[in-house]
Design goal:
Elements: E1 5-8, E2 15-16, H1 18-28, H2 34-51, H3 62-76, H4 84-91, E3 98-99, H5 103-111, E4 115-120, H6 124-134, E5 140-143, H7 144-147, H8 154-164, E6 171-175, H9 178-186, E7 190-194, E8 216-218
Parallel strand pairs: 1-4, 1-6, 4-5, 6-7, 7-8
Antiparallel strand pairs: 2-3
Helix pairs in contact: 1-2, 2-3, 3-4
EC number: 3.8.1.2
Keywords: Hydrolase
InterPro entries: 2-HAD, HAD-like_sf, HAD-SF_hydro_IA, HAD_sf, PGP-like_dom2, S-2-haloacid_dehalogenase
Length: 225
């Protein structure tokens, strides 16, 4: 089914975070397992997001969560707690993500026939600067920060659709993460699961749609029907 609008998760779905972040970790601490550290750092981020109560007027930036998480994960790996300026510098690697190879052409083709927009938990400033640097154009850049809640809160999806002027059945959420797609499905949106076997640097750790619970499964953005 073709939709009027497609909303995209970003980190992991469109952009590879593992390579640039693990590279930054390896530069900071060459003697540790940078891959394991990066995975632990990502897990720490999700734990922080799930424990926060946010609002539009009282918003904690994702970059601040990553910096705080970096300091804590250093302790887990037996490293000294870094100074804040160092933690911020290493955490800035989350602002230098790179697109998966299929993304630029796939998004361009999809945009020729539908509205495309981001719907990310990442900070608005990070999204704007990332895609400006990458030369990837959108009809709208939307993030959780605009709505005062992190995904998978239903307000994020409902308000994004309102901003785009479409009904839930006229839009699909595109993501590599089942929790994101399930939340979108719960409000009536279509769902497109994107397989990213290298998201965590090991295909055995990647998310799957083993039960075929989503409307479409693709390995390339250009495959979206």
């Amino acid at each position: 089914m073709r939709y009027k609008a497609y909303l995209f998760d970003v980190q992991g779905t469109l952009l590879d975070f593992f390579e640039p972040v693990s590279h930054a970790v390896a530069e900071y601490a060459p003697d540790i397992d940078a891959a394991a550290f990066t995975r632990a750092w990502r897990t720490d981020y999700f734990e922080r997001v799930s424990s926060l109560t946010q609002s539009v007027d009282d918003w904690t930036r994702v970059q601040d969560l990553y910096a705080a998480g970096f300091a804590d994960v250093c302790g887990t790996f037996g490293l000294p707690r870094p100074e804040r300026v160092i933690a911020n510098a290493v955490a800035s690697s989350w602002q230098r993500l790179v697109p998966w190879p299929d993304v630029p052409a796939g998004l361009s083709a999809l945009r020729s026939r539908a509205v495309i927009a981001t719907l990310s938990n990442t900070d608005m400033a990070t999204m704007v600067n990332l895609f400006k640097r990458l030369g990837i154009s959108w009809d709208a850049v939307l993030t959780a920060e605009v709505f005062g809640h992190f995904k998978p809160h239903p307000v994020v999806y409902r308000h994004a659709l309102r901003y785009l002027g479409v009904q839930p059945g006229e839009a699909a959420m595109v993501a590599a993460h089942p929790y994101d797609l399930r939340a979108a499905r719960d409000i009536g949106m279509g769902t497109v699961f994107v397989s990213r076997p290298d998201e965590y640097g090991d295909p055995a750790l990647a998310h799957t749609d083993a039960d075929a619970e989503f409307d479409q499964r693709v390995t390339d953005i250009g495959e979206i029907a």
